[in-house]
Amino acid sequence: MTKSLVIVLYTALVWWCNIPSTFGTSTNETDRLALLAFKAAIDDQASSFGALSSWNDSVHYCDWNGILCSRRHRNRVVQLNLTSKGLVGSLSPHIGNLSFLRRIILSNNNFHGPIPQEIGRLFRLQVIQLTNNSFIGELPKNLSRCSNLEQLNLVNNQLNGNIPYELGSLSKLEDLGLGKNMFSGTITPSVVNLTSLHRIMLAECNLRGEIPEGISKLRRLTFLQFSNNKLSGKIPFGLYNISTLNILALVMNQLDGSIAPDICSKLPNLAFFYVFDNQFTGMIPNSLSNASGLGRTGKRRFKLLHWANARRSWRTFGSSEDELSV
Q1: Tens digits of per-residue pLDDT, 10-28?
Q2: Alpha carbons 272 and 36: distance in angstroms, whole number
Q3: Contact, 239 vs 211, CB < 8 A?
Q4: What is the dihedral of CA 115, 119, 120, 123, to 10 degrees?
Q5: Tens digit of pLDDT for each residue in 93-146?
Q6: How many CB atoms lie within 10 A of CB 16?
Q7: How many C-beta atoms lie closer than 10 Å to residue 83's C-beta?
Q8: Positive/negative CA dihedral, 301, 281, 215, 157
């Protein structure tokens, strides 16, 4: 009986020592292979700084440059951060296999080609930052499946097509930056459903049409930048009800009508107000002349505007030492 028990225990010990990697050994093959596919899509000859030199079998992938793995889910990649590493290449579709990924930050490189549809599989994603690259093509509609997304920043690429209506389902989104791309069409009306938004940047997007009236639903908004488009019509009255607004920039569009006379009482936190090069009519509101909040930043980064000529643009009134950088 004792001999049989020893045999059973020995057999169990041998089995335990030889179980597959999915039961707790030091690697996760899916994540490792996805990262290697990411590396394979990078042009080593054109890239600089040797950012991926540590990406080899002599180093565990959780210790590779730019990689952060989860403490709770051992050896699962939760962050890919390779900002400003001189990378040249495309973004591999295998990025969609990093199923625990929460943050992908690849700004200030030279990625080209489309943003892969497979990124829509990453339902845990909270941050996508791909600014200052050369991505082309349309914005994947299935980004709407990334239901935990809080930041989507794609400023300064070469994306085209319409801004997908489906993005309006991202209920946790706080920062939306799509400026300096080559989109067409209008501001998607579903943007008014993004009620968690704090910042929205759609400058230089080649957008036309009117600013959606329902934008008044965005009650947490502090930063709105729609400059350098082809927007027309009037500033929606509801926009003046977003009392949290700190920066409002609508420069170089085709907006008309007049500015609300009580703009400063309705927007008490407004510090930067940029609306020149439009087709506004009427007098500058007295409340702007007496605005206590405008320019109180220590750097005098503000512009007030006055009406120069009927059917022409507003000109700068007041002083400004620094331009608003967006």
Answers
A1: 444 434 444 343 333 356 8
A2: 46
A3: yes
A4: -150
A5: 999 999 999 999 999 999 999 999 999 999 999 999 999 999 999 999 999 999
A6: 9
A7: 15
A8: negative
Query: Tokens 């890919």 — which residue?
Result: 80
d(CA 88, CA 112): 8
Percent above pLDDT 90 for the chain: 69
Cα–Cα distances in Å, from 231 out to 182, 185, 217? 15, 10, 20
Would the pLDDT of 302 be above 70? no
HSE, side-chain direction, 13 A CA sphere, residue 123: 1
Length of the chain: 326
How far apart CA 77 and CA 95 sit, in angstroms, is 11
Residue 234 contacts residue 256 (beta carbons within 8 Å): yes
